[in-house]
Design goal:
This protein is an all-alpha fold and 238 residues long. The protein has one domain. The chain contains ten helices and no strands. The longest helix is centred in the C-terminal third of the chain and has 32 residues, at 151-182. It starts with a helix and ends with a helix. Keywords: Membrane, Transmembrane, Transmembrane helix.
C-alpha cells in the first residue's frame, strides 16, 4: 500500500509537471556542443580519455572500498544478533532532519576553490567508524537480555549512526561540489552525469563485493556436528 500510494503520487506529479510547466521561449538558450545521442557519447569518450579525468575516475571508483563493509553489512549483522528490524527502522527517523541540515552546513566549507579538501579530511574519520561499527556488532550480543536491548544500547547506536552520517555527507557534498566546479558549462549536464555516475558506481561495487565476502570470511562453529566447519552454505544446512 505504501509503495502503491507513493507510486501514484509520483506519476500524478510528474504528469502535472509535463502538462502544466511551460518553457520560457523568450530566453536564448546557451549553445551546446552536442546535437544528439551520438554526439553526446562521442563527447563522453573524449572526456574520459583526458588524463585528469581518468585519474579522478580511478580515485572515486576506489575511494569507498574501505567503507564498504561498514556501510553494507553493519545493519544486517545487528539484525542477525537479534536487534529488531523495526527498531533499526525507527532509529532512521531522527536521521532525517540531520540529513537535511548537514548538506546546508557542509556546503559552506565546499563552496571554496578546493572542495575536495573536505572529502580528504572526512575520509580517516569515516574509516575509523568502520572499526567502531565492528565493535558495535561484537558488543551487541553481550548487552542483550530477555526483554531485548537496554535503552543505552539504542542511544549508542543512534549516536554512532549520527556521527557516521556527518562523515558520509561531508564526502558526498564535497564530491558533488567538485563535480559541479570542474564540469564544462557548455556540456554541464553530460559532464556532471558522467562524474556522478562513476561516483555512484564507486560506492555500489565495493558494497556488493563486501556482501558477497561475508560468508567466506565469517568464522562459524557447529554445535553437535563433529568435523563440520559450517563455512559453506551446504555445510551449515547439514
Amino acid at each position: 500500500d505504501f509503495l502503491f500510494f507513493w507510486g501514484a503520487v509520483f506519476l500524478i506529479t510528474t504528469t502535472l509537471v509535463a502538462l502544466l510547466k511551460k518553457e520560457n521561449k523568450e530566453l536564448t538558450p546557451t549553445k551546446e556542443e552536442t546535437k544528439g545521442i551520438t554526439d553526446t557519447y562521442r563527447l563522453l569518450f573524449s572526456i574520459i580519455k583526458m588524463p585528469a579525468v581518468l585519474t579522478f575516475c580511478l580515485l572515486i571508483l576506489t575511494a569507498k572500498v574501505g567503507f564498504s563493509a561498514a556501510d553494507a553489512v553493519t545493519g544486517l549483522k545487528l539484525v542477525e544478533e537479534g536487534v529488531p528490524k523495526e527498531h533499526l527502522a525507527l532509529l532512521a527517523v531522527p536521521m532525517v532532519p540531520l540529513q537535511i541540515i548537514l548538506p546546508l552546513i557542509i556546503s559552506k566549507y565546499t563552496a571554496g576553490p578546493q572542495p575536495l579538501n573536505t572529502f580528504y579530511k572526512a575520509m580517516p574519520f569515516r574509516l575509523l567508524f568502520g572499526l567502531e561499527f565492528a565493535f558495535l556488532v561484537w558488543w551487541t550480543p553481550k548487552v542483550k537480555h530477555e526483554g531485548g536491548f537496554p535503552v543505552y544500547y539504542y542511544a549508542v547506536v543512534l549516536l554512532s549512526y549520527a556521527l557516521h552520517q556527518i562523515t558520509l555527507y561531508s564526502m558526498y557534498v564535497a564530491i558533488m561540489a567538485f563535480n559541479a566546479k570542474v564540469s564544462d558549462p557548455l556540456i554541464g549536464g553530460t559532464y556532471m552525469t558522467l562524474l556522478n555516475t562513476v561516483s555512484n558506481l564507486g560506492g555500489n561495487w565495493p558494497s556488493t563485493v563486501a556482501l558477497w565476502l561475508v560468508d567466506p570470511l565469517t568464522v562459524k562453529e557447529c554445535a553437535g556436528a563433529q568435523d563440520q566447519t559450517c563455512r559453506t552454505t551446504v555445510a551449515a544446512e547439514v
